[in-house]
Amino acid sequence: MKKFQFRLQSVLDARIKHLENCQLEMAKVQNELSREAQILENFFKSRKERQQSVNQMLKSGQNMDFPVTHTFRHYLAKTGEDIARQKLKIMQIEKELDEKKQVVMESLKAKTMLERLKEKDYKAYIANLEKLDLMEIDEIANRKSAMKNYY
Prior knowledge:
By secondary structure, this protein is mainly alpha-helical. It has a domain at 9-113. Helix content is 90%, strand content 0%. It contains two helices and no strands. Helix 1 packs antiparallel against helix 2. The two termini are 33 Å apart. 1% of the residues are buried.
């Protein structure tokens, strides 16, 4: 008897490959999200350090002249804009990541469905083999019995 051959193996292989590609794309988006979140964290950290530096100058009683105050105010405004822009960018990447997750889930469902079908076909193949083995054993027993009765 021939060995087990799943009739949709090429489709299953294609779906597995598609799933791997989708997972790779999702991982790339996750890495991008991580990088952008780190940039946002750096903005917050930098702004906090500058604020602490100005607070330290004020606590020490150092006179803050107009150019320093003006520059710091512009720095805070610019940093606030950068933070808002970065948050928007992160939201867009999170939306893209959610879309990629959906695609991965759909691809996983399609692959799982075919794997279950393959498993079902394999069980049917094994059951058929067992049935054929039993038929062969019965035939051998019948021949043996017929040979006994013949002589």
